[in-house]
Amino acid sequence: MVYGDYGYMEEGKLGKPYNIKLIKKLLIFAIPYRAIILFSLILTMIITGVDLSFPYISKIAIDRYILNSWFMINPDKKQDPIYKKFIQEHKKLLINSSSPDAMFIARSNLKKIDPSLLNQMKKNRVILDGPWYKMKQDKSEAESNKQIKMIPSSKLISFNKNHILRIRADDLKGLELVALVLLILICISFFTGYGEHYFLEWIGQNIMQDIRLELFRRIQDQGISFFDRNPVGRLLTRVTNDIENLNEMFKSVLITIFKDIFILAGIMAVMLYLDLRLALISFTIIPIIILVTSFFSRIAREVFRNLRQMISRMNTFLQDRISGIRLIKALSVESEQMKLFSEINHQIYVFGMKQIKVFGIFMPLMELLSSIALGILIWFGGGSAIRNQISLGTLVAFIGYIQMFFKPIRDISEKYNIMQSAMASTERIFEYMDMERQVKSPGQMKKSYKLKGHIVFDNVSFGYSQNSLAVKDISFEVKPGDTIALVGATGAGKTTIFNLLMKFYEPQKGHIYIDGIELREIPADILRENIAIAMQDIFLFKGTLRENITLGRDDISPSQMELAIRDSNLSVFIKRLSKGLDHMIGEGGIKISSGERQLLSIARALILDPQVLLLDEATSRIDPETERMIQDAIARAAGKRTTLIIAHRPSTIKQANRIIVLHKGRIKETGSHEELISMGGIYSRLISLYSKG
Fold first, then answer.
1. What is the gyration radius of the CA atoms in the chain, in angstroms?
2. 642 vs 625 pLDDT, higher one
3. Would you state the CATH architecture of domain 455-499+507-537+595-671?
């Protein structure tokens, strides 16, 4: 697909972001940190256990201390079959009071009685309404009277505050203990939460660093044809925006995902333990949640995929236009470019609004489901509490757990856009990381291997597209130390020969040999340490002059630098600079003249003392004085090594031992300058045209 008239290619249709292979590839980067991950998961489980304990502790506080009441078993119903059945099955749950024949059962133990039996007991008044409370006894009183004193709740109204506090002193102490336990658990939660967040964040940052380095390495490993197909803006998006999206997923999603899983599993287990029937009723909403989430995920996935493509397209557009801002201003086409940018910007807006619509429905729907689940719980649970089938503490705990149950789901809902965007970015990142190199290096040679510079092209054909060949059946030989000039009109195939020799592309037909070794068998790094190229279009990085010559190599000795500067005649330029090699070059080198660029390019090519030197239009677009300096540098450099020169000016061509004339991708003439002039062919006409120019 082509976007408008800009020629930006759409990336291939991607698979599902949640496929197992993709996740496995992502997890490979986590392997070096597995010990820290395991430790973080242990901290996560501790935090989960603490969080799950809060509602349960509330249940204990309510049932055991706040509502620590008892129900009387009616002694007048001893002959009732229900009474006898109850005593037979649940006598262990009863206590005797100081009143004759009066037995009591704790409110918290009512849930242990079969609901149907409990209903029959209430109907037959085997169990009496109205809670009772245990009277606190002194130590001496308790020793002399093993039975417990009970008091009905109706009599508490007539007691004063101090008397009530004395009656419920044990319950108050129990609540103090509960408060202390909660305080300890909160402290544990704080410190383990800090450790969990710190370590998981640290892991995420390290994994992002590793992925970014690996992605940049994979991009650098690609052949030049890869960069022909992929705009710079798209590649920048992969290394910056897409990696950052993945980082956001690690920070906002993966940090909490394991905790959420543990919490959901723990909540379900505790709810089932507290009350099986009420838990199963609460879980009826889960299939609906799964269906809703699955439905909206499919919609959101496509929206995010399109949004990421449009952002990539915008980055490519901006990179091109900002780089070519001088041309845009020179031709006064700002308004036209603004119109094109407005179209891209509007498409991003459209997809952004689609994203908002999706989550504008999805998130409130999740809130609605949460409210429905809570309503169902209060309806069934409240009725059960009224019928004393469950305790009030159990109902409160269930309400707490059901709210906790939806919290991780709400978290996922809130972070769903981050997760979808990150997974879409992950697809695109691994699409590039899975690419094989176009020009493969077998890696069979030692790093110290030195080429002699004997070059042979044997019937080589190559085309940048399948429909058109740039060079056809090219065959020639360059002996070590020779200087060969490649001459021909634009499009004749001169630069293509250099590209093939530098292993930027592989020939579709024929073979290239250096020192009798086929080029395919020479690793790219060894080849490019022995063959250097000074290009016509010279790219300068923002940095010092020294950094632009060494290109980040830290193994360049001062003597190597001095020799390269001297042989390239760059010393004349350096002497004019106050800071010398430490002079800062601006972005793109806009203050550096064409001639100075050429001298710098030659110095850059000579820095490793290559055995083969390729010079592409080294004397184009420069003044006569600089041309003389460059020609002197070429003569000095060529005297030590095999040299191939693409040149148009007769003064440069004449330095060559032999001249190869190319026309429409084929070799038409070869010989010395005098021999080719005497032939009166293509070379003679080219020289005549150059001389007139």
1. 41
2. 642
3. 3-Layer(aba) Sandwich (3.40)
